[in-house]
Design goal:
Elements (H helix, E strand, L loop, with lengths): L2 H6 L1 E3 L7 E3 L1 H6 L10 H7 L2 E6 L2 E4 L6 E5 L13 E7 L2 E6 L1 H5 L11 E5 L6 E5 L4 E3 L3 E3 L13 E7 L2 E6 L1 H12 L1
Parallel strand pairs: 4-13, 7-9
Antiparallel strand pairs: 1-2, 3-4, 3-10, 5-8, 6-7, 8-9, 11-12, 12-13
């Protein structure tokens, strides 16, 4: 065995007494998980989606989308912008636009502005913030909902379906296409 193959191999004790080196692939192929161990594939099936609320509307965060919640961030006004574009937050040296979808969709304003939370979806140039009612919550065991209620016109083309969890409907929201369309309409 050369020094190069020895550095890539894993030593596996040999019960025959003659030490044998296996490649990492061969060593992993011999792995048998302990009884009761949950493997990643099983965890993936049970992984929760996260949902957030804006007034009466429930939205699902797109699978694989990075997100974070900012509690009472400083939002800097943008003079001359639409009233539903609240301004910008500085998030680790990235300027992120913050939107109030309640205003855009004509929904009633929040009663308690003191607990203002901004959900930031995506990162870098694609990042966008939304005022939300509460922290996103994990949702397991949802069932597909075939029909959707009447949604605001600006939202309708960006909802790909819905899921029920108890009495609540959660919308499969394509935030990327929504914000791209919103940016085009403001130009």
């Amino acid at each position: 065995m050369t020094d190069e193959t020895a550095s890539r191999a894993t030593h596996v004790p040999d019960t025959t007494g003659v030490g044998e080196w296996l490649s990492p692939r061969a060593a992993l192929a011999r792995f048998e998980p302990p009884e009761g161990m949950v493997l990643a594939a099983a965890v993936e099936e049970k992984r929760a989606r996260y949902g957030y609320r804006i007034s009466t509307l429930g939205f699902l965060i797109k699978a694989g989308c990075s997100s974070e919640v900012l509690h009472k961030p400083d939002i800097w006004d943008m003079p001359g912008s639409s009233p539903w574009l609240l301004g910008l937050v500085n998030l680790r040296s990235n300027l992120v636009p913050v939107f109030d979808l309640r205003q855009l969709f004509g929904l009633p304003p929040r009663d308690d502005a003191a607990t203002q939370r901004v959900l930031v979806l995506d990162q870098g140039e694609k990042a966008a913030g939304l005022l939300i009612d509460d922290f996103p919550k994990p949702l397991l065991d949802m069932s597909f909902f075939p029909g959707l209620p009447q949604l605001p016109d600006e939202l309708q083309p960006h909802v790909r379906g819905g899921y029920m969890k108890g009495d609540s409907l959660w919308l499969e929201f394509d935030h990327e296409s929504f914000f791209e369309n919103l940016a085009r309409s403001e130009q």
